[in-house]
């Protein structure tokens, strides 16, 4: 999961056979994180787009996000710091469980979960590669059951779009990056993966992702 750039098109259009898939969490296995933030902003009276603008352009807010996603500060420190940044822009919020409240609108995307389950049943290696945010962002999900490998930014100390986090995922899966596809809802994360030779699918919904994985890369729900 990440929050700092909007999606703007696939990394590549070339057809090539690939054998493994790296999956984002927030915005792929769940509904859109960006939309959840917008919903929260409306609830607290922030002008439209303020929260995302802070993460993209406010140096203090962006640093809080990076440090938190990399596991160098915990949710409480982030919550208090980001509440201060909102206050500086005229939005009074209580810091208690702020990151959790910002994500309250997120919902499980059952179609994407079924897509992942089908690929795993067909023998496709799957890695979950996610930028952690908040204390309970994975609540309700058995990540080890969902993917063969789970790489969380706060646990490995590096976040997307750094090449290192994708390299860790591929190494743990035992695949060459040039045999992998990254599925993410943010272009910047696909661009980071592409620097290692990992192909990209820009996720909008499960049906489109299923189609792209099959038509462009030969990945589908095949029998073993």
Describe the overall structure.
The chain has 224 residues and is an alpha/beta fold. The chain is built from eleven helices and five strands. It has a five-stranded parallel β-sheet with strand order 3-2-1-4-5, with helices on both faces. Strand 2, helix 7 (143-146) and strand 3 (149-152) form a beta-alpha-beta unit. Helix 2 crosses helix 3 (59-69) and helix 3 (59-69) runs antiparallel to helix 4 (75-88). The longest helix is centred in the middle third of the chain and has 14 residues, at 75-88. The model is unreliable at 2-14 (pLDDT under 50).
Brief descriptors of the model:
single chain; 224 residues; 5 strands; elongated
Anisotropy-based shape: elongated
Number of helical segments with 4 or more residues: 11
Largest sheet: 5 strands, parallel
Strand content: 5-15%
Average the pLDDT over all residues and give the rounded result.
92
Helix content: 40-55%
The N- and C-terminal alpha carbons lie at a distance of 31 Å
Extract low-pLDDT stretches: 2-14
Instruction: Specify the structural class.
Output: alpha/beta
The spatial strand order of the largest sheet comes to: 3-2-1-4-5
What is the CA-based Rg, rounded? 17 Å
Q: What is the number of E strands?
A: 5
Order of helices and strands: EHHHHHHEHEHHEHEH
